[in-house]
């Protein structure tokens, strides 16, 4: 595909090539050995043993059902449309607030025509009045009660979803402001929602430590609140609006860039402090580029490709239009990048603002395609009520049944998003996998959890299936186009025509 170079690409071609060069095998080994050590994963190894790059291998035996690894997120986000369904910590993605608040927000958004998985009846999250969104959370602020009520007056008058039986506005109001406590909801205690330290009303946390970690890692640059460290909050809002209106994967790419900038600034600060303490010591190579490469390291290990080259052609695009489709995708990424640049540009990290790097970051998410899922506590709550002994259940259902009817089929929507998990992203695919990503009841945050599907012996590669492995050979290969490869697992080898 013919591509014109942007000025940053011309100026920084060497630095960009260094950032995108696959790290040397020894560095890969050292990084993953350290990561596994930090995560207490003594029975697995990351090795580069077969034709398709890195893979995860058992370094001990695992039995069926045993936990193989838990993998915290490197960068992750809840889908914008899912924010209407679940209130979760913006850093670890566990449910926060209370069962009543979770349900109240959902009913409230339903009442203004915003529903699960569908955004706001054709509009996007950002298009919904900010005041309306605040209404779901503002009861947590000291002076909020009145505002909540006013917002509801203003916003909760639209019609509810067709099939659901709405509850009165006062019920929604009291669920959100703590006035109504549902039976047995104390069996499902949730951490209180902590506001963003930057003052935006979009990020909430389960703890101060999550708020601080997110702030340090990326949110300080992506916060739209008054203490934001972005260059322009207005430009940032435009970037976010564009991402919500087109593809929210741009928000994740922005997180990856901010994560790298924040790490770069910290490394530089430490380096300058060291220099001040000991000016005569001849430091190692600490040019801006070497610091940038170090800051980028955790992202450098991810399997990558340019987004517009690796994205599968959608079914509704005619193959003869492929070139113009890919050009359009590239243009879309460029528009997003220019908006992001206006909001958070950092001269010392300029190569990160090239389209080449932006395209590879988005491509990394596309090729690894790792879902972030946290099971719904609201679903657990209603299942608990359903399992109560008959008499007690009847009594509880006097209150819970109308609420369940109002929620309708959407009552059990999980927290859904996209994330990059450093270890899970090293796991290769097999159509007869020996492990799967599976959340147990106790796995209540966004970490990836990998469980053995059968006995796995020491030395065996641990594989998961990226697709439904029960499909036919042809269907499986077609599904794997989305991941950019033709499967060479033993099952495909046997079944290929
Ligand atoms: C999520 S990554 C897995 C880790 C990867 N091997 C690495 O080096 O980072 C997915 C990529 O690994 C390769 N891969 C994984 N499973 C494969 C398989 N069964 N057959 C062929 N290639 C596979 C493909 O290149 C795919 O795009």
From TrEMBL:
<keyword id="KW-0863">Zinc-finger</keyword>
<dbReference type="InterPro" id="IPR001214">
    <property type="entry name" value="SET_dom"/>
</dbReference>
<dbReference type="InterPro" id="IPR046341">
    <property type="entry name" value="SET_dom_sf"/>
</dbReference>
<dbReference type="GO" id="GO:0008270">
    <property type="term" value="F:zinc ion binding"/>
</dbReference>
<dbReference type="Pfam" id="PF01753">
    <property type="entry name" value="zf-MYND"/>
</dbReference>
<protein>
    <recommendedName>
        <fullName>SET domain-containing protein</fullName>
    </recommendedName>
</protein>
<dbReference type="InterPro" id="IPR044237">
    <property type="entry name" value="ATXR2-like"/>
</dbReference>
<dbReference type="GO" id="GO:0008168">
    <property type="term" value="F:methyltransferase activity"/>
</dbReference>
<dbReference type="InterPro" id="IPR002893">
    <property type="entry name" value="Znf_MYND"/>
</dbReference>
<feature type="domain" description="SET">
    <location>
        <begin position="42"/>
        <end position="467"/>
    </location>
</feature>
<keyword id="KW-0479">Metal-binding</keyword>
<keyword id="KW-0862">Zinc</keyword>
<dbReference type="Pfam" id="PF00856">
    <property type="entry name" value="SET"/>
</dbReference>
């Amino acid at each position: 595909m013919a591509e014109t170079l942007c000025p940053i690409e011309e100026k920084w071609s060497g630095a960009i090539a260094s950032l995108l060069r696959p790290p040397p095998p020894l560095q890969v080994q050292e990084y993953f050995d350290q990561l596994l050590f930090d995560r207490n994963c003594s029975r697995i190894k990351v090795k580069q043993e077969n034709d398709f790059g890195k893979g995860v291998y058992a370094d001990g035996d695992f039995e069926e059902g045993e936990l193989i690894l838990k993998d915290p997120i490197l960068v992750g986000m809840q889908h914008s449309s899912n924010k209407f369904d679940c209130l979760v910590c913006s850093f670890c993605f566990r449910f926060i607030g209370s069962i009543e608040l979770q349900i109240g927000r959902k009913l409230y958004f339903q009442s203004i025509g915003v529903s699960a998985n569908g955004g706001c009846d054709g509009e996007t999250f950002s298009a919904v009045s900010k005041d309306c969104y605040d209404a779901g959370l503002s009861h947590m602020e000291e002076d909020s009660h009145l505002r909540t009520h006013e917002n509801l007056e203003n916003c909760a008058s639209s019609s509810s979803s067709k099939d659901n039986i709405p509850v009165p506005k006062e019920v929604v109001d009291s669920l959100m402001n703590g006035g109504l406590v549902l039976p047995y909801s104390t069996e499902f205690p949730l951490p209180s929602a902590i506001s963003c330290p930057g003052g935006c009303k979009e990020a909430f946390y389960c703890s101060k430590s999550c708020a601080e970690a997110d702030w340090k890692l990326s949110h300080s640059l992506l916060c739209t609140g008054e203490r934001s460290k972005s260059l322009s909050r207005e430009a940032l809002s435009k970037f976010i609006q564009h991402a919500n209106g087109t593809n929210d994967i741009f928000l994740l790419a922005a997180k990856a860039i901010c994560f790298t900038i924040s790490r770069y600034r910290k490394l530089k600060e430490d380096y300058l402090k060291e220099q001040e303490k000991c000016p005569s010591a001849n430091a190692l190579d600490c040019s801006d580029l070497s610091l940038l490469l170090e800051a980028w390291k955790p992202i450098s290990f991810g399997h990558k490709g340019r987004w517009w080259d690796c994205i599968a052609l959608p079914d509704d695009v005619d193959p003869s239009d492929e070139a113009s489709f890919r050009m359009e995708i590239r243009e879309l990424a460029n528009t997003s990048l220019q908006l992001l640049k206006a909001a958070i540009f950092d001269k010392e990290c300029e190569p990160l603002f090239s389209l080449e790097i932006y395209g590879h970051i988005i491509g990394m998410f596309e090729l690894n395609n790792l879902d972030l899922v946290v099971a719904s506590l609201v679903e657990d709550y209603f299942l608990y009520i359903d399992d109560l002994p008959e008499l007690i259940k009847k009594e509880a259902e006097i209150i819970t049944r109308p609420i369940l009817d109002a929620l309708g089929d959407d009552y059990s929507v999980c927290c859904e998003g996209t994330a990059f998990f450093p270890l899970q992203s090293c796991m290769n695919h097999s159509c007869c996998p020996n492990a799967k990503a599976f959340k147990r009841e106790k796995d209540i945050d966004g970490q990836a959890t990998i469980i053995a599907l059968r006995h796995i012996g020491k030395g065996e590669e641990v594989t998961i299936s990226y697709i439904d492995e029960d499909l036919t050979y042809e269907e499986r290969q077609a599904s794997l186009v989305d991941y950019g490869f033709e499967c060479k697992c033993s099952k495909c080898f046997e079944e290929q025509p």
